[in-house]
Amino acid sequence: MTLTRVQSLDDAREAAAGDRPTSSVRWLRRLFRKKIAIACLLVIGVLYFCGLFAPWVAPYHYADQNLDASFEGPSWEHPLGTDRNGRDTLSRNIYAMRTTTIVTLATLATGAFLLPITLGMLAGYRGGFTDSLIMRSGEIFASLPGLPMLVLINATLRPRFVSGVEEAEEALGWSWLSNSAFPDYFLIFFVLSLFGWVGGARLIRTQVLTLKGQEFVLAARASGAGTMRILFKHLLPNILPLVIVGFSAALGAIAGTEIALTFIGVGVQPPTPSFGALIQEGAPRSVLEAHPQLLLVPAAIVAALLFAFNLLGDALNDVLTPRTR
């Protein structure tokens, strides 16, 4: 029995029982019937909870160090041991999860949601010059080599941006922006958003081109509805399943790119922890042989997070777009 038929039977049973849920409720019910989806949501939820509330979850601050306790093994005081500078490994991994959480959520809000949806729907609905302008701009970004451009922009802009933030702090009497690694977070989020919207916008534009000739859009236009109302009231709900599936894939890609940038030294800079830096610190052979947890712990967390995103994306695709299966 195909997935579509199973879901139709489920909906029929709900209707026969007098329960007529909205489409979003039906999606959630189908999603929660999948054990693998629940497991992935739990993994992602726990990791992101730890990242968001790192100052309260971590037993130590990431910068606390004790040089007399360098490279200690696991103990009650330090469950995962300490690193070269005597810093608690568990705490640094939790704060590294905070870095990944901040960057992925900020980039998702713009590079995977605001820009692709707005620009993709405008290009598909308005057509003409607007479509050409948006799509040609996207082709310029898409034609550039992704990772090298991310490295180049981040490396060249960071000194100027950090200097500008420090000058602004001095003028305003602040100090928390630099201390909170705001310049690094903002630059990575900005660069990832700049290059991350093109694929989603193309996909959404294609869907809108198909939908804008439908009767419900023509009726809305005939009733005097404006462009923004048609886009966000009538078209957006119809492309929402596609957007949600894209979110899960985008989160994994954003997290992986942020970790890769830090691994090669142009992402979040020390002393702020990042999984890329933690993996790099634990990668030397002498460190790996004597203290394998310094590499295995961040690598395992990264693998679990990316694997959970991929499996959740497959589950969402099954639930929201069953006809494609």
Total count of domains:
1
Residue share in β-strands: under 5%
What is the name of the CATH superfamily? MetI-like
Order of helices and strands: HHHHHHHHHHHHHHH
Tell me the major beta sheet.
Answer: none
Put simply, the count of helices is 15
CATH-derived architecture: Orthogonal Bundle
The helix/strand class is: mainly alpha
CATH topology: MetI-like fold
Question: How would you describe the overall organization of this protein?
Answer:
- The structure is a single chain.
- The chain has helices spanning 3-16, 23-32, 35-52, 54-57, 89-126, 128-143, 146-172, 176-179, 182-196, 198-211, 215-222, 227-263, 275-282, 285-290, 293-320.
- The chain has one domain (22-61, 74-324): Orthogonal Bundle (MetI-like fold).
- Helix 3 crosses helix 15.
- 76% of the residues lie in helices and 0% in strands.
Write the SSE topology.
Layout: H1 3-16, H2 23-32, H3 35-52, H4 54-57, H5 89-126, H6 128-143, H7 146-172, H8 176-179, H9 182-196, H10 198-211, H11 215-222, H12 227-263, H13 275-282, H14 285-290, H15 293-320
Helix pairs in contact: 3-5, 3-15, 5-6, 5-9, 5-10, 5-12, 6-10, 7-9, 10-12, 11-12, 12-13, 12-15, 13-15
List keywords for this structure.
single chain, MetI-like fold, disordered N terminus, about 325 residues
